[in-house]
Amino acid sequence: MGVLDAFDKEQKEAALNATLVVFMADEAGRQQVIQALRQLNISDAYVAVGTINDLIDHLGKMERSPERLIVDISGLDKPLDALDQLADACDPSVTVYTVGEKNDVTLYRLLLQAGITDYRYKPLTVDALRLWLDDRDGYSVRQARSGKIIAVAGARGGVGATSVAGQLARELSAGGALRKVVFIDMDVFGGAGTTLMGMQSNHAMPEVLDSVANLDAQFLARVLTTTDDRMYTLGFNNAFDQPFQPEPGAVAAMLTALSQQFHYLVVDLPHAGGMVANEVYSRANFACLVSDTSVHAGRVLASLIGHVRGYGHDTVVHVVLNAVRPPVKAQVDPREFTKAVGHPVTVAIPYDGKFPALAEDLGEGMAKESQMAKAVARLARTLTGEVVDDDAGKGWIRRLFKRAA
Ligand SMILES: Nc1ncnc2c1ncn2[C@@H]1O[C@H](COP(=O)(O)OP(=O)(O)OP(=O)(O)O)[C@@H](O)[C@H]1O
Ligand SMILES: [Mg+2]
């Protein structure tokens, strides 16, 4: 049996659980890769001919996520757009390499900014493959991708933090057909979050915290709650005499592990301060701080912004103004509020009548005409990078694969 025949036989086994998946544009490219992998003694690979769309289809069939992908972008009109779809289709932890026909510095730079680990023009040599596949600890891990962690906290109780967090999770999930989003309710005694997401509250948090080293897709599917394999919830349901005392660092470690499995993690914080909130801030890419326009909330918010920023991680703060009651005094102009707290307001949500309460009781997303739904949709697009100041349009570059924004 020839080298290629033997390889083809292995392919049947590797197709659904290989750690390396390669999609080349043509048979010649495929055979070059097979020969190179042989020379490198790598057998745990699946090598096929196909486009990025074929690769996305294939990923949907795989039993577990591969660790690395190599995809040929030759001949694609809009490689960044196609890769954008691929981003949503594979777990954030997957390392992606690209090959193509062009020796083009601009394309190379855009791909790297977009979170692609490397780009080579063809033919893909043994040396190039060795560099990609051997030096995992140095080169690739440094560039590891991860999902975005979004902390949501209120400047005071009852300002709508949970409503904003829930709707935000829904918007993020709706924004990409293959995106995986987890809504994490940090209320130890079972907050309103899971009801609002239309799911049964679960008590998965203790188990997840105990299993941080082994959080794979199967485990998460078992302990978290999901109705569609895209939106998941994770929470507590402690009895009132059962306080939550995690080991220092446990919550941060859990978020890091989950960020390898989900594209977006929306963390609803019942308290804006304390150890749990601080560990969440220490890992958060974004903190959405929800406030009303009261003098008290304004004061708390000003110091909370400083606190979140001081946590060492490059957390981007978004101030969300929300009116949970009809205005009793003249509406405060967001610009005035901005001046008072010393930070711009990303979105201002007006009093929205029955919509938020209905959404919570029914466990459904907010109606389209809801003001909160519209404002939170804008917030979601700001976080994903789809709403931008320049005219570059929606881009992978500002999205998922970039580490901290
Ligand atoms: N813009 C709005 N218009 C009308 N009602 C709102 C608005 N935002 C939130 N609400 C309602 O206000 C109530 C409090 O909202 P929510 O539970 O989201 O606040 P919270 O900040 O999470 O509160 P807690 O401090 O208890 O966690 C809910 O009944 C919600 O439906
Ligand atoms: Mg809440």
From TrEMBL:
InterPro entries linked to this entry: P-loop_NTPase (IPR027417), ParA/MinD_ATPase (IPR050625), YlxH/NBP35 (IPR033756)
Recorded superkingdom: Bacteria
Keywords from the named record: ATP-binding, Nucleotide-binding
Any one GO BP annotation for this protein: negative regulation of cell division
Stored Pfam families: ParA
ATP-binding among keywords: yes
Keyword Nucleus (UniProt): no
An example Gene Ontology CC term for this record: cytoplasmic side of plasma membrane
Single Gene Ontology MF annotation: ATP binding
Name of the protein: P-loop NTPase
